[in-house]
Specification:
Radius of gyration: 39 Å
Order of helices and strands: HHHHHHHHHHH
Oligomer: single chain
Biased composition (Polar residues): 1-12
Structural class: mainly alpha
Coiled coil: 42-69
Biased composition (Basic and acidic residues): 156-165
Number of domains: 2
Keywords: Coiled coil
Largest sheet: none
Biased composition (Low complexity): 235-244
Length: 286
Amino acid sequence: MARAPLTTTDLSDSSKLRDGKGLSNFSSDSKHILAQADAIARMTIELNLRAVAAQADRLERELKALVECTARDRAFRDKHEQRLEDMWREMLAVKQRMGEFQARSAADVERCRAQTARAMDLLRGEAGRLRALVDDVGGALDRLSAGDSSQGEEAGGDREADEALKRRVRETLSSTRRWNRDHKTTSLGDPAFVARYLKQQSKRDPRMAVLIQRALQKRIARRGGGGGADGNSGNGNSSNAGNSSRRKARPQSLEQLCEDLVWKDVIETVEEVLVRAEAGVLRALR
């Protein structure tokens, strides 16, 4: 399906940058950026000249030694005299230029460093604003794309929604597997560990966590009704009956719910709800 061209109204949200300013920031700071870049270039030239000056000093020493060694070698002097003079003039020119730079105070060098630091901070700020602008435009395009897809075939939208729900189920299973590995090395007791697991699931996927907690409450209720994993059937035991009545009561807090749970309860409940009864979970999450 061809996408309608973007209009000013469609991108109204993206025109509001996070700092309250528009693209005018970039043009207003352009002169300042150029000035900072010029300062950096001058400092780079100075550093290069210093390297050239050091090389010139070395060549001067070597040239003096060469002249002394060949002072009496007339043939060598006749052949290379002009070249030696040219090298000497180049070295003098470099030294003269370096004298101009060395006349500058140390404060100038520090000022260049400070300007470089400010330029880097400014560039980082501009880069951050550019990223924010790109994010805003991307969000507007995503909203437009979502609007176009909602006007398309509903079957395609339903498939995408189902896939998103199945992905949430897979993520919950993966998270539970990680917690199961952590349970093998934890020093916490099962009630505290289960409470921490359920709290983390509530942060990660609140609706999924509610389904797991309800299934755990039903598991406790079935177990407390007699003949379960923790009770004895047959001759009624008064102590077990007291425990059953306590477990039948609705827990007032997450910690109270977890008092009657062990980690194996979580594993079996997650397997029962998210694996064997996945279709029911998908209907509940819609």
